[in-house]
Each structure stands twice: as structure tokens, then as C-alpha cells.
Design a protein that fits this description.
The complex is a heterodimer of chains A (328) and B (353). With 328 residues, chain A is α+β, with helices and mostly antiparallel strands. Chain A contains seven helices and 17 strands. Chain A has an eight-stranded mixed sheet with strand order 1-2-12-3-13-16-14-15, with helices on both faces. In chain A, strands 4-5-8-7-6-9 form a six-stranded antiparallel beta barrel. A three-stranded antiparallel sheet of chain A has the order 10-11-17. In chain A, helix 1 runs antiparallel to helix 3 and helix 3 crosses helix 7. The longest helix of chain A has 16 residues. The radius of gyration of chain A is 20 Å and the shape is globular. Chain A starts with a helix and ends in a 6-residue tail after the last helix. In chain B, helix 1 runs antiparallel to helix 5, helix 5 crosses helix 9 and helix 7 crosses helix 9. By secondary structure, chain B is an alpha+beta fold. In chain B, 52% of the residues are buried. Chain B is globular. Chain B starts with a helix and ends in an 8-residue tail after the last helix. Chain B contains ten helices and 17 strands. In chain B, strand 6 and strand 7 form a beta hairpin. Chain B folds into two domains: 241 residues, 3-Layer(aba) Sandwich (Aminopeptidase); 87 residues, Peptidase M42, domain 2 (Elongation Factor Tu (Ef-tu), domain 3). The chains are: A alpha+beta (328), B alpha+beta (353). At the A-B interface, strand 15 of A face strand 4, strand 5 and helix 6 of B.
Chain lengths: 328, 353
Amino acid sequence: MKDTLRKLCEAYGPSGNEGQVRDLIRSEIEGLADSVRVDALGNLIAVKGSGGHRVMLAAHMDEIGVIITHIDENGFLRFAPVGGVWTLGLSGRRVAFADGTIGAIGLEKLDDRDRVPAMAKFYIDIGASKKDEVHLKVGDMAVMTRPFVTNGGRWIGKAMDNRAGCAVLIETMRRLKAPKHEVAFVFTTQEEVGLRGATTSAFGLDPEIAVAVDVTGTGDTPKAAPMAVSLGEGAAIKVRDGGMLAHLGVKDLLVQRAEENGIAYQLEVLEGGTTDGRAIQTSRAGVPTGVVSVPTRYIHSPSEMIDERDAEACASLLVVLLENDITL
Amino acid sequence: MTTAEFLKTITEAHGVSGYEHNVRDIVVQEFSALCDEVRVDPMGSVWGVKRGTVGGRRIMLAGHMDEIGLIVKKLDKHVIRFTQVGGFDVRVLPGQPVWVHGRQSMPGVIGMRPPHVMPAAERDKVIPMEDLFIDVGLTAEELAQQIRVGDTITLRRGYVELKNGLVASKAMDDRAAVASLLECLQVLQGLKHNWDVYAVATVQEEVGLRGAMTSAYGVAPDAAIAVDVTFARTPELPETGTVEADKGPGIARGPNLHPVMYDRLVETAKRYEMPYQPEPVPGASGTDAWAIQVSRQGVPTALLGLPLRYMHTPVETLSLRDVERCGRLMAYFIADLDDTILDSFRPALPEGE
């Protein structure tokens, strides 16, 4: 999983521009599915197995980024966030555009250094000295850039949210020998700007049960908000987050399968944020939906950190879910 | 079960958003006696279907059966740290008795630091939820055996009969509306109606109208009436934007509500000499009506409001008579309903177009 995740994390894919990530995933899952297609919003849908229930698994391909809003006479680029970008820590970061162009984020002179400046105070510098030298256009998007690194079993990278989820789905496909169900592995688009790929792919697939796979926060860092999820303690099975209450039957089934198979898990109550599960759950007349989360520190920073064992546990849990009967 | 008995039973039952199963069992049982068919949809909403004499057209009635509550966030030595599902006013929480729904339901109390040992600067401030905790009397080891992250917590407040037919309880919002649906079904037993009636006790309203959204898609109604509680006037509240308790249900008017549905409900109330109160709602009503209105290609939707004092506290107070009036108003509206209303929903185009 590590090599796959390294490639995924280092790929470029802000919301609405997931093409490079999608191509990468297509090559990673070559030969693993019975059918593969891309829908109108760019979701990649790989179906494997038949019979049983129609199950949808979803992990989003997109990552947060920035979009150029203005290019000034001296060649500096002003930008707006795409998804939840924190201004704290932006200064000095590097961003990468689709063509590989790297820019440095600069900050205007501040009147008050103790306050977090507004996004409008920052700009991107690609080394141009005047507007004519800038080959980029208003509307081009960039993502934070940072190499994927490992410290033993702790993996650090940008876009763990949610390439970690994508890697879990790919790993599940690799390990899944005999699914008892018709499983649609959906690599969704535009989660970070409002769960939009999940909304449409769920409508299109009309599943009978769904599980979203995404990252979740932890409460195991200095002075963190209280939360009973820690890195390395296993797959997080969601009870609720800021946008949804997991279906009780799906949640309980995930817990049961984890316990039967000795898979480490923790129950997750997340106060803010949500996942594709929120949109899938209310598709059409409603879809019983659960969420399996990869515990992650420093979400929406370029140094999102996960534990290898948790990601492995997430994949193991999905495999046993799909290789057994599902009764809610 | 009478409407009053039903209201007492379901308000005393426990069912935080997403965990409505105990309430659902009661609703299924009582609706079954009055309906041709009762179904539970994938999200857990209950549909009581009473067939009309003509059939084919559907009117959906919606009242939500979830309640706001708390959920275990973390076990902290021998106490429970919690967060909300839906929105309690955090000022009413300290000192409340609760039920903690662990492996078994057990009583607990919401504790905080005694005022004597509280720094003077904090004494006049609202205690943030992070500083509150629940004590069930167990030791840390026993607690870990009995309670898990994600278990729900409800307030332990019984149904109290006040004077003049007023009643107080937790979860009047919006179980009183479910009781009005039951009243409507009871009244309809003695009336002839053309359309099929889908009385839906919805789930997860308090966390974003999620049960109404999905059940409306499933029912695909031709028209709908949502019932929710609305602000009853008390001395400190303004006269605008509020209604009076025990003066009949509010009939809401505004962009969320179809004008023909409003007009017909008002006509029905006048024809049968039932009290009602017009209630302007300038934008989002914050009720199931908001989700139902935009289901599929759109649903002409009305909203009836049960005047309620002390909303989102453990002593939500309303008039039992208003609940019954609301149910009767819906029943007579439904009995008068025929397909001619469908044409009036869509204004005719000018001649020649």
C-alpha cells in the first residue's frame, strides 16, 4: 500500500481537476475490476462481483488547493481557496500547478504580526518579473506540494485526505478474492467543495448499502480537542460527524465484523467536518450508509500523518464486510 | 391509545436523531391500527399509508420523531464527556438528570464544578459543554465495560400536566406533531377521502431534515403538509414572529409554502370553525417542509405550527388541544381534497400561449 499511496499523495488533483489522480488509479486497478467507467462528473467507478446487495464504496480523489483569481502587472498571482484551506501556515509554502510549475507563497508586510492575516494578504510568486512572463491563467489551480515520507509505520504527506482512502479502496480491491456482492468502488470528485461527486454517483448507482472511506481527526496530540481516536489504534468506525449520523445497522455490522476477525478498530465521534457518506445517505429514498475512517493528524495541512496499521485495518475490515453476508 | 396517551408515551420514549428505533416501534404499532399499510424506509422513517377511495394521488403528512440529545465523545476516568446531536441550549444542561443508553440504559447526572470552588471570573459565565460531564456512579473500570463512544444520552424528564390543558415534557419538538398525525388518522376513520394519505414520522430532522428529504423522494407526493412546533408567545418574546398557545395551530405563509395549500387550509379552518393563526415565514422554515418542497420536481407544501413554549429545553410546553386541532384540520382538509387542486397549483398561462 505504501508505494501506491506515495504515488497518489504526490499526484496533482484539486477539486474539479482530478484527471491526473484518476489516470493513476486506473492504472493501479488494471485487471482488478469486472468493469470500469467514468461518469459525467468525473467519478471513476469500478465494479467487481455480482449477486448479494449492490454496495457502494466511496473515497474522494480530490484535494484542497488554491485557484488564481488575479495576475498583477509584476507577475504575482492572487488566489482564493478551493476547499478548506487554513491561512495559518500558508506563508512560505510551495504550490504546484497542473503543468508542474512551482510557486512560493509570499505574504505582504503585516501591521500586526500576532494576528493570522486574511487570505487576501498572500500571493503566489512563480519567479516572473512581469505579467507577460506568466504562462498561467486566472482559474488555474494549484495544490500544496510536499514529498511523501515515512518514519517507520508513520506516513506523512500532503493529500492524505483522501488519497489514504483511495489507497484503502485499491488495497481492498487487490485483496478481495470472492465478493458476495456487486461492489462499486467509486473514486469520487469534488468532495472538498461539497460532496458533489458522491451526490451524483450515488444517484446513478442507486446502491442498497454504502460505506464511505475518508480520513478523520484524532485527539492524541498536545492540547487537542477531546476525541477518543488515536493514531495506530485501528480503523475508525464512524458513529457521527458534523454532517451525518452513521446508519446504526451498518455501524454495528462493521463493529461485529471487526470483532469476529480480530481487526483493530475504534469508534469515532467527530464534531466538525463530514464525508461523502453524508451525501450518499440521503440519495433518492435514502441509503443505509456507514463510514470507515483513517485516523489522521494535521488534516488539511501539507503534513497529514497516518499510521500504516490503521490503513491496513481499514482495508481488512472492508474485505471481510464484502466477503460475508450483509443483513442490516 | 388516545392522542393524549400517545403523546405522553412517545415524549417519554427515547430517540435521539439517528437512534429513533424505540419511538419508531410505538409509532408503527399505533399507526398500524389506523392504516392499510405501515412501512419503514431505508433511513428509518415510518410511513402510515391510508388508502383513499379513488387513490393514485398522494398527500404526505410529516412530523419528525427524533429529538435533540447528547452523545458520548470520550470516557474520562469515571465520567463521560459528551457532545450534542442537534442543538440544546448549553445553559440548561448543568444539573440535569439523564439516561445514558449504554449496554443497558442507566440513569446519570450532568455534573460540573461546584460554585464554591469556581473562580469568581467563571461564576457568571455559561459553562462550556467541554467542561460538563456525566456521572453514572460507576468506577472508571466499570464505566469502560458499560459505556462506549457513540452511545446516546437523553434527558430524564417526564410528561407533566399543567393547568388549562397545557402539558410539558422533553421532546414535544416534534413528537407532538407525530401525535397530531395520529389524531388526523383517527379522525379520517370516520371521513371519506379520495387521495391516499401517507402519514410519515420522519427521522433526523434535527440534524438537517434528512429523513424528510429521503421519505419525500420515496413517497413522491402530489402535495404535502409538514407539522412542526413554532414559538409560542411568552412575556419576554416579541408579538411579531410568535403565536399564542391554545389558540389553534399556526398556518405558515411564505416562499417555503405553496399559496394554494395555505389558502385551502385557511378555508378549511373557517368552514369548520376551527381556530388557527396565520404565521408569516419569510425564508427557510427550518422544518421538514423545506426539504419536502424541493423533492424531485417540487411538491406544493404547507406547514402547520404547534405553538410551543421553551423550545429546545427539557420543559417544552404546549396545549394538548392545539395538537388535536392540528390533526382535525389536516383530516378535514384531506377529506375535501380532489384532483381540482392540481390545476390550481399551476397558474394557467395567458390565452394563446
